[in-house]
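REQUEST FORM: STRUCTURE PREDICTION
Request ID: SP-0412
Submitted by: Lab K.M.
Chain count: 1
Length (residues): 93
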Amino acid sequence: MAAEIDDISINYEEDGVVVVKELDRSVLSKGAWTTILFRFQQWDRKKEGFGPDRYTIRRYQKKNGEYIPKSKFNISSPDQAKKIIDVLQGWLK
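STATUS: Completed
RESULT:
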């Protein structure tokens, strides 16, 4: 858990190996409920390297001074990301 938004990360290490590497982030909303869009890569054990860029939207609730993860949505592919962008752009015209 993190006390500040800047301390929130999706970097994850397992047995001394970084298996989720955060590449970038954008804070979409702040407050008691915070939403962050992350760009990341996952370690591929078979290829012994990081896979393609992936994206996830995560929601955190601030309780007792700590941000607690509450929900997440993983964007499964670049194609899905583009479809989300197209739909949102259409709705916002």
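NOTES: The mean pLDDT is 95.
Reviewed by: T.R.
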